[in-house]
């Protein structure tokens, strides 16, 4: 058992207000969006310890053993390399939402491979979602991105996402 740190990222942290630079390509923009979720110790302050990151997932509220906060605390990031859990206060903390996910080949089950040039428009469903969400699915060699039309709960990455193209389910994305 390796003890790790729990770091709180304030909701008003400058990392949530970073000005979006101009990009040479869509791929560059998507990688930049993903990199905004790479929290560090210096983005917040230590509020506790944990006894193993394998016990946590994004969006989790229970089992953090953090008290005395104004609002409930949720897991908003996990750094396996540094053995750190990042948390934020309140169910509307900006760290709980995103508009893009990144996947690798091992996370994808192709039910039917659509003609994928670089991108396709898809509809996304999940047991967690109350309604279908529009998104764009991008492929750049062996890296895939799912960019949503609106902010969605980051914890959706913990669930299987079903992607439909032209009213036909074509892809299952798993964490």
Task: Outline the structure in words.
- By secondary structure, the chain is mostly beta strands.
- It is built from one helix and eleven strands.
- The strands form two sheets. It has a seven-stranded antiparallel β-sheet with strand order 5-9-8-7-10-11-6, covered by helices on one side.
Throw out a few tags for this protein.
mainly beta, 175 residues, 1 helix, single chain, 7-stranded antiparallel sheet, 4-stranded mixed sheet, globular
What is this entry, summarized?
The protein has 175 residues and is mainly beta. It is built from one helix and eleven strands; from the N terminus they run βαββββββββββ. A hairpin with a 2-residue loop joins β8 (133-140) and β9.
Q: Biggest β-sheet: count, sense, barrel?
A: 7 strands, antiparallel
Morphology: globular
Estimate the strand proportion. Answer: 35-45%
What Rg, in angstroms, do the CA atoms define? 17 Å
Query: Roughly how many Å apart are the termini?
Result: 24 Å
Report the total helices: 1
What low-confidence regions span 5 or more consecutive residues with pLDDT below 50? none
SSE order, one letter for each helix or strand: EHEEEEEEEEEE
Arithmetic mean pLDDT:
90
Helical/strand content category: mainly beta
Kindly state the percentage of residues in helix: under 10%
What is the number of E strands?
A: 11
User: Strand order, biggest sheet?
Assistant: 5-9-8-7-10-11-6
